[in-house]
Amino acid sequence: MTTTPDTTAATQTKTLLRFATAGSVDDGKSTLVGRLLHDAKAILADQLEAVTRTSEERGFVGGEFDFALLTDGLRAEREQGITIDVAYRYFATDKRSFILADCPGHVQYTRNMVTGATTADAVVVLIDARTGATEQTRRHLTVVHRLGIGHVILAINKIDLLDYDQVAYAKVKAEIEALTAEIGLDSAHLIPVSALAGDNVAEASANTPWYQGPALLELLENLPSKEEDTADLEPFRLDVQSVLRPQGGLAPGLDPDEFRDYRAVTGQVTSGRIRLGDEIDVHPAGLRTTVVGIDTADGPLESAGAPLSVALRLADDIDTARGSVLAAAGSLPEPRKALRADVFPFTSDGLSSGDRVLVKAGTSTVKAIVTIESKHNLLTSGSEPAEVLAGNDIGTAEVRLATALPIADFREHGRAGGFLIIDPQTGSTVAAGIHTPEDDQP
């Protein structure tokens, strides 16, 4: 394997990897992430001092401390010894920058796991080596599979409590491999770890000479990210937030004559890259135009990629407003009023066939009616007919929209294929949906 000289590496920009951790209660998610942060030297001295003090109050002695406190950010969580919300942390090594999301393990907080995993490049699912897969393991792996996460890492934790026995590990490994095959996860990475002792977390452990694979951090440092895979491969898309007209002052980089006629559409680049001179299609206008200006708060650019927020000047005066979509010429999905989607309810009431809701996709919000088709059976990894999805169910539904929207295939385009289902009376989010268009009708 070839290596890049240090002098070259020092001049390169670090890539970013977003990853989430998940697993059943007490499998050690927060402890693993805390250990990862500690061993990657990503803990500030004052935070380490506070964690050490709190650990002593909990009975930790001899300089040991509770690694979970490094990620459990809410006071109520620390008092109960559980994680009930997604705890985001940012850290970096010499090779890469990371954004991690430590997701909750309780069954009733599966919705938080969906939230944390949706934007992840990779998901680390922890499994207690002593108990093997649980119902929540099946739930998390099913969510990961349905979301189409590119990289799945199964950390078989607490291997120290099995005395690092290779035969015991092989038994649970075979069980997990059978489960991933049943669910459809064909390329998962399995790593024996001890979050508490640090085995195979930041460095390979001498306690597991029978394991020849990478440590967790080494694997995370070398996995390709969406940023690397698709930065210049996915088609450009931008959901319009607003339209800018002169309101006083002078836009950066523009002379007064240009400013008088200034008009630009603003929003965040959802995917791909836009360059001066590129042709784009505009929905719902159904027209094609050319980008003649790319403006930011720091001045004009020649090109801009996801996830930068920009103001685009267009060659033609096309009717656009919040909810309009700009996309690379020829790449805009067929606008449709009927969507087939995987649905993840967020509330205890769940969703029922016939519910009248609002669907928010990008910057568009439209009325819709939901028809539940099926519910995922976690025990068989199959589907069964259903008309109701409870708070932690995973199911498939048809969503009929009052206005046709160009929602992309989530498996291919990620964020552009996701949407929220909202209660029109309360304004609360009822569920998340991802467009799976195998059986769609325009």
UniProtKB/TrEMBL annotation:
What is this enzyme's class at the first EC digit?
Answer: transferase
Check the record and name the InterPro entries matching this protein: CysN_GTP-bd, G_TR_CS, GTP-eEF1A_C, P-loop_NTPase, SO4_adenylTrfase_lsu, T_Tr_GTP-bd_dom, TRAFAC_GTPase_members, Transl_B-barrel_sf
Alphabetical list of CDD domains matching this protein: CysN_ATPS
Q: Which GO terms describe its molecular function?
A: ATP binding; GTP binding; GTPase activity; sulfate adenylyltransferase (ATP) activity
Alphabetically list the UniProt keywords. Answer: ATP-binding, GTP-binding, Nucleotide-binding, Nucleotidyltransferase, Transferase
EC nos: 2.7.7.4
Chain segments annotated as coiled-coil in the UniProt record:
none
**Domain called Tr-type G: residue spans:** 14-230
Q: Which GO terms describe its biological process?
A: sulfur compound metabolic process
Q: What is this protein called?
A: sulfate adenylyltransferase
Q: Which organism is it from?
A: Brevibacterium aurantiacum
